[in-house]
Write a structure and sequence with these properties.
The protein is α+β, with helices and mostly antiparallel strands. 44% of the residues lie in helices and 18% in strands. The chain has 19 helices and 16 strands. Strands 1-5-6-11-10-9-7-8 form an 8-stranded mixed β-sheet. The protein has a 5-stranded mixed β-sheet with strand order 13-12-14-15-16. A 3-stranded antiparallel β-sheet has the order 2-4-3. Helix 1 runs antiparallel to helix 7, helix 1 packs across helix 14 and helix 12 packs antiparallel against helix 13. The longest helix has 20 residues. The radius of gyration is 28 Å and the shape is elongated.
């Protein structure tokens, strides 16, 4: 008995209509990235687990998809391990590879592996799928595409400023109103220091990063469970509740770290102040907010951290990233600083769908359909189609000489805006009769005039062609 095929939860098929919209997002990102001098890069879907493990914190390691070794993967496992019931210990022996969790760690591995052939600072963008063994839910998938842009080999805070400009320009082009949240891991380290909980920095960052999702009370409960003293938790509360504009928050932090003698915290404040000073000269940027509850749980961040949220849709962050000062050090190349951001294409798509801001023309792949009137007309239409394609125009010739009504219906269903009719009379006159599917009007063109019309109005006929 046959069963209906299906796909794993948290993964999706993408129809042509969806892919056209997704490609619009990708092409928008690529165009902005290239304008700032970033180059394309791709890395393999699978990495060695030794590359991935330990780079995302304890929670991140649990979400790695591990790939079984090929062949008889159990043959080298001692019987005692098979019967021990310890899945973690066993998985380490039968799996040496895993699907990439993000694009940043593979990027760091690439930089170390190919460092002799790179020009630093090295600026790259990368648009590829990643996989996480997370619980599927709205806006959260097990397979999704990340769109990363990173610069490595430079300590300059101008890179942070440039990335914020990229974020603002991308969302302006996509017509999404956003707020950019910014913080600094040195500020968080300073906070942990002055509340007497330096050894719990990771616990603090992981907990407060969930503030928007679980609320302050649950964050405090998690911190208590992780071993923070009631005194430390109490000292943390005023920091989490700090109000005011960005300048006021920086002033309060400056005073807090000065009184608490935290050099690390003061350095974080100075880095943030420098970034905000540059941004004052760029009034067209999206709203940028200093958010002290922003922590980003990934353990490799060391400086500025960012998250972007859509203002008109209930959705998690749609872009995030930050500074990592020594990510390449774990691969044998210490002291190489980098900073990057990742655009969540899937969430961006969901936001644009909910706001209904994709153009109806996004589904147009073919500008002109040539009607098939039979063998004699086919040969003539093939030549016409080739000449139009050579001019950069997207053309289809219907493959069978079906009834005209059926061919017109095909064009209508595919959203093809124009239909060309080349019958016996048109062949003799050298004209092409073109039907405007939207207006319902019909007009005769010479091949030259039709080529000029479609080429000159390309953005109207097919706005997302690349």
């Amino acid at each position: 008995m046959s069963t209906t095929p299906s796909i794993p939860k948290g993964m999706r098929d993408y129809s042509p209509e969806v892919m056209l919209k997704r490609n619009f997002i990708y092409n928008t990102l690529k165009e902005v990235f290239r304008r700032y001098g970033y180059q394309p890069l791709e890395t393999p879907a699978m990495e060695n687990l030794s590359t991935l493990m330990g780079k995302y914190g304890e929670e991140g390691d649990k979400l790695l998809f591990k790939v079984l070794n090929s062949g008889d993967f159990l043959s080298k496992v001692p019987p005692a391990d098979l019967s021990s019931g310890g899945s973690t210990k066993l998985s380490n022996k039968i799996s040496e590879k895993g699907l990439r969790y993000d694009l940043t760690v593979p990027f760091a591995r690439y930089v170390v592996q190919h460092r002799d052939g790179l020009t630093f600072p090295f600026k790259r963008y990368q648009i590829q799928p990643v996989w996480r063994a997370d619980r599927p839910q709205k806006g959260r998938y097990r397979e999704f595409v990340q769109c990363d842009v990173d610069v490595i080999g430079s300590n300059s805070l101008l890179n942070e400023v440039e990335l914020l400009k990229i974020v603002s320009e991308v969302y302006k082009r996509l017509n999404i109103r956003v707020r950019i949240h910014i913080n600094n891991r040195k500020v968080l380290a300073g906070i942990a220091e002055i509340i007497g909980a330096e050894e719990h920095l990771t616990d603090i960052t992981v907990a407060i990063d969930k503030m928007d999702k679980i609320g302050l009370e649950s964050v405090n409960a998690e911190l208590k469970e992780k071993g923070l003293s009631p005194v430390s938790i109490q000292k943390l509360q005023p920091v989490l509740a700090l109000e005011g504009d960005n300048a006021e928050k920086l002033r309060c932090l400056q005073e807090l770290f000065t009184n608490g003698s935290s050099a690390t915290g003061l350095l974080g404040v100075e880095e943030l102040r420098l970034v905000f000073d540059y941004l004052q000269d760029m009034p067209t940027l999206s709203e940028i907010k200093l958010d002290l509850t922003l922590a980003r749980g990934l353990s490799y961040y060391t400086g500025a951290i960012f998250e972007v949220k859509a203002l008109d849709v209930e959705m998690g962050s749609i872009t995030g990233g930050g500074r990592y000062d020594d990510l390449t050090g774990i691969f044998g190349l210490p002291g190489v600083s980098g900073v990057g951001i990742s655009f969540g294409a899937d969430r961006i798509f969901d936001v644009m769908e909910q706001l209904n801001i994709f153009s109806t023309k996004a589904n147009i792949t073919t500008q002109l359909l040539l009607v098939n009137f039979g063998k004699e007309g086919e040969r003539h239409s093939l030549k016409i189609a080739d000449e139009l394609r050579a001019a950069g125009i997207s053309v289809e010739l219907y493959p069978e000489a079906e009834k005209l009504k059926k061919q017109i219906a095909y064009a209508d269903k595919k959203g093809i805006p124009y239909v060309g009719l080349i019958g016996e009379n048109e062949i003799k006159s050298g004209l092409i009769s073109v039907k405007d599917m939207k207006e319902g009007s019909q007009k005769d063109y010479t091949l030259s005039d039709l080529t000029n019309q479609l080429s000159a109005g390309g953005s109207d006929f097919f706005p997302y062609q690349t």
